[in-house]
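Hey, I'm writing a tutorial for new members on how sequence and structure tokens pair up, and I'd like a real worked example in the thread rather than a made-up one. If someone can provide the structure for the chain below, I'll link this post from the tutorial.
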Amino acid sequence: MRLSHKIYQTIESIWWRKKQPALLLRGLSQLYKLGSKYDQNQRCKHAIAPSLPLISIGNITVGGSGKTPFTIWLAEQLKKHHFKPVILCRGDGGKQGSPQLLDQHSLAKDVGDEAVVLHRMAHCPVISAQDRVAASLMAAKHGDIILLDDGFQYRQLQRQCDIVLVPDEGLGNGHLLPAGPLRESLESLNRADLIVRTGMGSSKPLTNNKEWHWHTKPQPLNDWLECGETAPKSVVAVSAIARPQRFTQSLQDLGVHVETSYFFPDHHAFTEHDLHHIWKQNTAIAVTAKDAVKLLDIWPKNRPLWVLEQGFEAQEGLITAISACLAIGANKQQC
């Protein structure tokens, strides 16, 4: 395990426990709050109104709130209502310069792992770009509504509906970065049009506004290389995602025994060297869809790549609430 990953794990353990972090970290959090608020206000002043209606899907914590699967679900729902969604994503882990419209040949190392997962699973146009204002101009040629992935802090684009996802585990120790996992303060939820709790729990409400519930449902393991083998009952779990314990828990919920786990940093670019020792074990290997898109190019073609895919379950009325939000927001300008 790399030193940087060990340091990140130590910091994350501080974020998600209820004890007060060190005074120095809390002081740095206050500086972060001031700088972040000023920066976002400046960006909002110059926000651009895209030519298409826009729904933002975001969060206020670092990683692991379910933005990618929720975006896939929402794209599916919009298509059922005769929309043509286009997804804009930041392309974390990629190296693209100008906006890139994904196709079947797009690689995670170029456009980012989440972009490739969205393209494979949502079955709609996906544009990967650091400059999502430029991407919004391209989107107008490929659909009639924009889904802005990880958009709550991206204030440069005006939107009709701001959806914020909050994991049922809550907000950790409640502190801003670097003392805690918060990207913005709890008060920022007042900007949200809809708050969606992701998970199966019955968490205490965060605001006085209605909170909706939505969660993923793990599906039976699927071999993306179609080697023709029966799904395993026991696996080695390999992942490079935020909060990977959710992945191993999902496997266990399916009745799959996890012999051991190998966790890499979020967005890690896998190499054959990373996997050589794991491949030598005579055990099936299970990965997330987000990791599978990075592994396809280096995975042995005669060895199953067992992928944990997700189904979705939403509280009744959620898509109606999103539609109402779009209608209300049609004539407003907010960022």
